[in-house]
Amino acid sequence: MELDFGPAVRDFRDEVRDWLADHLVGEFAEHRGVGGPTDGAAWEVRLAWDRELSAGGWLGVGWPEEYGGRGLGLLEEIVFEYEYARVNAPYRATVNALDLLGPMLLKMGSEAQKKRFLPPILAVEELWGQGFSEPGAGSDLASVRTRAERDGDEWVVSGQKVWTSFGIHADWVYVLTRTDPQSARHKGLSMLLVPTDQPGVEIRPIRNLAGQDEFAEIFLSDARTGADMVVGEVGQGWRTAMATLGIERGTTLLPQQLTFEREAEALIDLARERGALDDPMLRRRIVDAWISVRIMRTTNLRTIAELTAGRTAGAQATTAKLYASTRHQQLGRLATELAGPAGQIVGEDYALDRRQRSFLLALAETIYGGSSEIQRNIIGEQVLGLPKEPRP
Amino acid sequence: MDLTFSEEQDELRKVVRSFLAKHSDEAAVRRLAADPQGHDPVVWRRMAGELGLQGLAVPEEYGGSGFGYVDLGIVFEEAGRALLGGPYFATVALAAEALLRCADEQARHELLPGIASGETVATLALTEDVGRWDEQGIGLTAVRDETGAWQLTGVKTYVPDGHLADLLLVAARTPSGISLLAVETARTPGLTRTPLPTLDQTRKQARIEFRDTPARLLGPEGTAWPALARTLATAAVLLSAEQVGGAAAALDAAVEYAKIREQYGRPIGSFQGIKHKCADMLMDIESARSAAYGGLWALDAGDETEIAIAAALAQAFCSEAFTKVAADNIQVHGGIGFTWEHPAHLYLKRAKSSEVLLGTPSYHRELLAARLGI
User: Fold this and answer.
1) Looking at the partner chain, which of A306, A376, A384 has a beta carbon nearest the beta carbon of B4?
2) Mean pLDDT across the stretch B14-42?
3) For chain B, which residues lie within 8 Å of any Cβ of chain A, measuring from their own Cβ?
4) Helix (H, G, I), strand (E, B) or coil at A187
5) What is the pLDDT of residue B1?
6) Do B282 and A387 touch (CB under 8 A)?
7) pLDDT at A178
8) ipTM, 2 decimals?
9) Per residue in A161-198, pLDDT tens?
10) Nearest CA of chain B to the CA of A310: how many Å?
């Protein structure tokens, strides 16, 4: 589908298209469609691709120029992401720093932090891991126990973080810590930037259900970082974390939905090949799968249209994740069913094909970034205004 | 890319909502539901005279205001929210559209201004005893008499507001195919109209018998099906907008109740069982809204392939979403929601009747599959 973003960005769109046509070649082109927020496959190639993008000036399209960005607007970001997804370019390995840490620093970081950290992110010189979750604090981030104490000019950090995507590659981690030991819940937390290249930091890979070392657990034992490495104010880490998680980027929706559309098309091709379209029960589910990806697209367009018009995104922006993640899982289940017994056979060393990988990895989508249950709580309480569940 | 509402459209929504809050409140809905005619001519005239709602999307050359389908969709969404009774859907979504699509410029000039001004209540008589919305479902015949004038013989049924329409647009079979004919009920002999008692009392239907009934052929004989199919696609999208509005009202009611109704010492909306149900209702509604708005955008863009796809998708999805949300609203209300006195059942019944009004969700899935080449 062709999206018309108007004459204002047509030249920009052509520039993006030309650049992608010239650079997404060779080894990079072979890795089209590879990756995803939970997929650590082909890491080195993807990292090289990120550097290629960086050299072309395509990382941080909307970030200010003084920090290495392009200083363009939301519409250009959306156009870039759309064209990027249209050619099925590899999923960016540095997406964590680009989509979460970067915007967080831009919003809450000190000038020194912005100058120090943003340019290396865009240059793909330093890789970052996120340290929010803990073994005892997954959906309930306010129960974070990792503690940090002030020691002269430094913070001393101890605790354990988990589910850090691509954490084994991280040069730095941004961690939510408890800086006031007397505090409870979301009070007394601080957001710290911690280098991993020190004796107090140990990173161990965790193998996911697809057999990949996608995420990691991070053990912090008297790890040290500078006193100036707090993002936002000391004791205000909860606000910093929420501001990060609350950064709604219409830009990330389109690539994901285009991936789903491709999977739906592949599913229809597969169904046709296997004669499944003649089965009324399967046919119904196939049509429903097509309907759901089309609805995702329209929902995303509604949000993007509102954001680019300077309006507040409507309620659909809050239900989009719940819808997309649950429907994507249905798509994966149906595709696996249509593939039949042959779809159950994997390659050497548990090598999965695209369909198998998508089926398994989609299971994370109703967990990460706020599980579906948490999403429903948020929708119920913050959008519909229902009373909170009493907490003991 | 203009896929968001303008300030003028926000204003239109506000005006229509406040008008309907006054003129289609629960008491009015119940009064019309209990009334065999189901029509309030005073409100109808004010809708036309004060707000221009009947002619909103009718081009100016035919006496309307020439707004787009997104604008009209806003009105239908609000009409659905308020469970507006009376012949608005029949007149505007079906009859006006059929006239606009038929290849008869003269008929448009003669018949549309009456619809736009609110003088004419009109409907489309398409379905028959078999209850099908496709070409094959049309069996009623039109023949020429010895003078060359057209006459209709046969039965149409499940005709929305057919009992009171001043103008019937009738889909009939002629020797060369499907044709569209117009019958003005006030001056035409050979018509028997019987109101049908309906499960959903908020939208009336009628059975109409034609016996050598004189009718006026609209456009060339035998060529009406494409125009009728397109009319049904437009009506499907507008009905979807109405369904979204109805579902949104049902959710509002559920949420309101969940905030005040206490069990086990706290509001039931604080329990995740209820909270999560309400969140899923909102997800269904917002997804349905995307389906309906996608159809409205397609109508305004005028791409016929896209209209056909978006319309079938919207009906397949919005029909089920409204019914599910309306049923969930009853569940959230518990026993009270199961009573005649509570309005929850009015929404459920409207949802169920809307689900089959233009063909079932399964039928629309098949239309969609065919249009996609699946």
Assistant:
1) A306
2) 97
3) 1-4, 251, 255, 258-259, 266-267, 269-272, 274-276, 278-280, 282-283, 286-287, 289-291, 293-294, 313, 316-317, 362, 365, 368-369, 372, 374
4) coil
5) 43
6) no
7) 96
8) 0.94
9) 999 888 899 999 999 999 999 988 889 999 999 999 99
10) 10
Per-residue pLDDT, averaged over B95-99, amounts to: 98
Q: How buried is B259 (Cβ within 10 angstroms: 0-12 exposed, 13-18 middle, 19+ buried)?
A: middle
Q: Could you count the other beta carbons within 10 Å of the beta carbon of residue A78?
A: 26
Mean pLDDT, rounded, for A38-45:
80
Which residue from A114, A181, A107, A104 is spatially nearest to A144, judged by alpha carbons?
Answer: A181
Residue A322: CB atoms within 10 A of its CB come to 25
Inter-chain touch A302–B316, beta carbons under 8 Å: no
**In Å, how far are A60, A143, A326, A367, B276 from B283, measured between CA atoms?**
32, 29, 11, 17, 10
Q: Report the alpha-carbon distance of residue B348 to residue B325 in Å, rounded.
A: 8
* Structure confidence at residue A38 as a pLDDT band (50, 70, 90): low
Mean pLDDT of B224-233: 98
User: Which stretches within A24-174 are classed as H helix?
Assistant: 26-30, 43-55, 74-86, 95-96, 102-108, 111-122
Q: What is the per-residue pLDDT across A272-297, written as a single tens digit (0 to 9) for each?
A: 999 999 999 999 999 999 999 999 99
Q: Collapsing DSSP states into helix, strand and coil, what is residue A31?
A: coil
pLDDT surpassing 80 at residue B304? yes
Looking at residue A57, what DSSP letter applies? Answer: T
Q: Identify the DSSP state of A17.
A: H
Between chains, do A377 and B270 touch, taking CB under 8 Å as contact?
A: no
> Is A248 annotated in the active site?
yes
Average pLDDT of the segment spanning A241-247: 70
What lies within 8 Å, CB to CB, of A300 at 6+ separation is: A250, A253, A254, A257, A320
User: A303: nearest CA in chain B?
Assistant: B4
Encode pLDDT of B83-93 as tens digits. Answer: 999 999 999 99
Structure-block tokens of residue A39: 């997929």
Residue A277 CB coordination number (10 Å)? 16
Residue A1's pLDDT is 44
DSSP codes, A222-252: EEEEEGGGEES-TTBHHHHHHHHHT---GGG
The confidence score (pLDDT) of residue A102 equals 93
Shortest alpha-carbon distance between residue A311 and chain B (Å): 9
CA-based nearest residue to A365, from A318, A330, A335, A338 = A330
Q: What is the predicted pLDDT for the residue at B2?
A: 63
Fill in the amino acid letter for B95: A
Instruction: Locate A270 and state its tokens.
Output: 């597969």
Q: Are A34 and A42 in contact (CB under 8 A)?
A: yes
pTM beyond cutoff 0.90 = yes
Nearest CB partner across the interface for A386, out of B255, B289, B293: B255
Q: In Å, how far is A178's CA from the nearest CA of chain B?
A: 29
The overall average pLDDT reported for chain B is 97
In Å, how far from its chain's centre is CA A96? 6
If one counts every other C-beta atom within 10 angstroms of the C-beta of residue B189, the result is: 8
Cβ neighbors of A191 (< 8 A, separation 6 or more) are A104, A108, A174, A175, A176, A177, A230, A231, A232, A237, A240, A241
B282 phi/psi in degrees, rounded to 5: -65, -40
